[in-house]
Request: fold
Amino acid sequence: MCFGALRDHVPAGADDNRFELDMPEGSTAADVLERIGAPRRLAAVILQDGETIDLDLPLADGCELTLMPPFSGGSLRIKE
Reply:
C-alpha cells in the first residue's frame, strides 16, 4: 500500500493504493521503491505486516508492505 505522494507511483491496474508485486527472494523495501520508480526520500515510514522496518531489511515472503511519506500537522495542547 502506498499513501500520500507515493500513490503517484502505484503501478497501473492497482486497486486504489493496493497492488501485488513478485519480487526476488531477499528483496528489500528499497528494491520495491526502485521497482515502482519512487524516490527513497518519499518513504519516511515503512511497515511490513504492520511493524516498522528499515528500508534495507529483507522482506518476508508474502508480506504486506505499507509505504508512507513524511507527514506533519496537528497541534499539541498541554493543560497546566
Remarks:
- The longest helix spans residues 29-36.
- The CA atoms of residues 3 and 68 lie 5 Å apart.
